[in-house]
Design goal:
52 residues, alpha+beta, two-stranded antiparallel sheet, 2 strands
Length: 52
C-alpha cells in the first residue's frame, strides 16, 4: 500500500481495502478455488453483501 504508515494505524480494515482498491484496481486481490478477483471486482461484490 502506498500511503503513510501513520495513517494506516488509524484506519479500519475496510478503509485500508478501499484505499488499496483505489491504488491498484486491476491487481489480483483474491485467488480461491481457481477463481481470481481483482480489487475492483472484489470491492464491487463486497459492497453488495450488506444489501442481499
Amino acid at each position: 500500500m502506498l500511503f503513510n504508515l501513520t495513517n494506516q494505524q488509524n484506519m479500519g480494515i475496510h478503509e485500508l481495502f478501499e484505499n488499496q482498491t483505489l491504488e491498484t484496481p486491476s491487481n489480483i486481490a483474491l485467488i480461491f478455488e481457481g477463481q481470481e478477483l481483482t480489487y475492483s471486482e472484489l470491492n464491487g461484490q463486497a459492497n453488495q453483501w450488506p444489501y442481499t
